[in-house]
Amino acid sequence: MTTEYTFSIIKPDATKRNLIGKINSYLENAGLKIVAQKMVRLQESQAKEFYAEHKERPFFASLITYITSGPVVLQVLKGEGAVMKNREIMGATNPSEAKTGTIRKDFAVDIEANSIHGSDSLDSAKKEINFFFSKEEIVE
Question: If 0-12 CB within 10 Å is exposed, 13-18 middle and 19+ buried, where does residue 53 land?
């Protein structure tokens, strides 16, 4: 396997419940290194641009309202097979379908407030990282 970079968002439901450290420990214990991290409150325009691929879906308005409802933690993660490793430790999008020991099974409130977002491919990871981070913010 090769070293990869992936993108993650610790979502508002998790930041409100003070779960940032616990979620980070899941990521680090899985062998991922956090090489960039910042807490922000997404503006509606940023959220709409970031989630533009979902704009025709019925949940889009609710997603935008939710993701802008409180602070989020944006992250760049590095590791062997980082995209898939992050997807595995996050668990299924629907927490009721997630495996025990995954972030979503252990912390999610529901399918929307599922505590974490992660890139689904290397192409998405590159796009999402570049959307939120400059090269100078990624420290190895």
Answer: exposed
Active site residue 117: yes
11-43: pLDDT as tens digits: 999 999 999 999 999 999 999 999 999 999 999
| CA atoms of 73 and 75, how far apart (whole Å) | 6
Write the Ramachandran bin of 65: left for phi over 0, alpha for psi from -120 to 50, otherwise beta.
alpha
| Closest by Cα among 49, 38, 21, 58 to 139 | 38
Catalytic choice (48, 79, 117, 125): 117
Alpha-carbon gap, residue 109 to 94, rounded angstroms: 10
Residue with tokens 């419940």: 17
Q: Which residues are annotated as a binding site for ATP?
A: 11, 59, 87, 93, 104, 114
C-alpha dihedral (127, 23, 88, 137), degrees to nearest 10: 20
User: What does DSSP assign to residue 74?
Assistant: E
Which positions make up the binding site? Answer: 11, 59, 87, 93, 104, 114
Q: Which residue reads 């490793």 in tokens?
A: 85
Q: What whole-number distance in Å separates Cα of residue 66 and Cα of residue 68?
A: 5
The reported pTM is 0.96
